[in-house]
Amino acid sequence: MRRRFVILSIVAAVVVVAIVATLLVVRALRPDRYTAEFAADGVAPVTVTVPGEAGKPTIEARPAVDPARLPSAVQALSKPVRIEAGSFDGDARVTMTYGPATLPKGADPTADLQILTFVPDAGLWLPAAGTVDTGAHTITASTPHLSDWVLAVTDPRKLDDMKAFQERMNWTLSGRIASLMTVGEQDPLSCDAKHLLLPARISSTIALGEIPLCQEALDNGTYRLHWVNTTGLPVVSDLPPGFRSAAKDLHSDVFLQTVLQKHQHLDGVIVRPGKSLEVTFPGSAVSATTQFDGEIDWSIYLVTMMRQIMSAMLGADEPDNSKAREFLDASFRLTELWNCVADAAGEKQSSGSTFRTLFTFVWKCKGAIYEALEAGLTKIAGKAVSNGLAKRLGRFLGRQLDVVAKIEDFMDIARSEIAGLTTIPAQLFGHLDTSVTIQPSRVMTSPEAAALPVAAADPAGSFTTGCARLPSARFPPAGMPDPSLCYQSVPLDLNGNGKPDRLILWRPGSPDLFTPLDAASLGAVAYLDDGSFHRMADPVGGWGPDLGGGSLFHFRQVVHLGADTRAAAVVSLVLGSSTTHSVVLALVGNDLRAVRSGADVFDLADGGGAGYTSGFGFGCVRSGGKPLFVTRSSLTDFGPPQSYAWGLTYYRYTNGVLTQVGVEQGKAASETAIPAAGSDCSSAPVKRRGPEVGAVPR
Question: Both 274 and 307 in a single domain?
């Protein structure tokens, strides 16, 4: 057994020695490097040399590069080639031959010629480190990786023609926070005049002209505030608790979310120049001290501006190039870059334009930008691809950036010296208030309405000139034009769900009961138990000449008119010598309305009696179990003998309209013999609404 083990060990050792020897022989026979050459129509002659372990490389021509995918002012001199080989350590060499006659006029091969390599993970053509041999008309780049390669050159004529670059910048900037260089068309305010508009307030010393701001109360009881940024710069703001941005969720944009995080606005919003801040919020989110403060953040301006300049220069601005955007976003999130830009933004100078000062400081961060791009590429593509990118970009983009820095009218793209800041005293930062403060408003909430003192019913019409006013610290009811007006608060079940709602009436104070009141200062609003409020859909001034010029706006009593339990309120407007004219306010759909008869507001007259020529009243009855509303009138015939001609008019109530369904007339020898109009309509259940009268005369 032991002998067998020894024999097997010897055999194994011999096999191992044979394998090692074979590998050594193969390695000795394998060349240290492989070289391949390639030439084809439209392709610059290319020679590739790779380490021996990579094997012999293959080269094939690829379709021409889309010029929009190339860096700014750069053009391809040939079609690209794809070079493939096995894995290897160390560097490969890519040499391309150029024809001097193919170079643009004024191009310097040593400064302008480049080999670009496509980095799929970044979606970009990036420069490789190249050495130009002007004698051999070649350029050689060393690379630790292989992909697609193209011979390219910076065209000095395009470099000098910055109009094209400006157009590209404008196009690049559209649709993102960094569209700071051009404002484009300013957003219009979009509050709906059909909604209740509220007096929100805003203060800003740097906004241009009248500040576009509006706030509206929505049908569901919440609020919407809309502000258009006319400062010419991005404004960053935190939102108070309960406020939600109605615009695109910035948290879905990684770059913009980083901007907010860097500036400790984790729940904030960024408002671009000419663009909108739209927020919605419940009334409970607003107190007397609620406000949100925005500030112009120069760091945001600078870093987003540089990101978009890099995007335009590197050809990363195509809408469908998501990988390029991800690469730039990852790069511009680095702390070192933000620290550099923050230092630049914090500098102060006593002369020169605001923009020129800021732009100069941005250029101090060029190195940090290049390093950030290299670090960003390392994260997504690995060190082998990104190594040395910062230096290569410095050489490749240096001339482009120098030209951009010298554009005299560059600030015109940025809205005339940052929206005219240079015309403001203390133009830089020392004494310039760059904040924007918005104070939202609101109206009284349902709980606040329910807490108001209740107005007593006054069915007999014992009117007074008394006036209850809101405490100064209270928010006014929805629609009340002046919080100093007199008010009445009436509890009633307007929507018929068995829970109390509130009807609030308002009017001006008056020295007597007969002086006509301003119809524009008369109004009401319904607050429901679900938290919503409902304003009057038909203003008092439109109720007709007999009702619109009233001297009252006084709650009389709660009534129930329809086949359900919804309540309405009788409100008196006109006090005559013996007759009071009133209306009935009811919730019709989502609106508070004056009940109508046909096209006209129903004039409910009551009063008169013994000693008067006529008398009026109203009540409720049932006909076949269904509720009817009844008005009663009487006319005194002083005879002799004295008698009373009377009439009962029957109405059926449906959806805010009283429709006449019958009339009954007669003559009575005494006032007490005049038939009653029924009950006082105070009972919600139909079966107790009033007496059963059977069929009514038609």
Answer: no
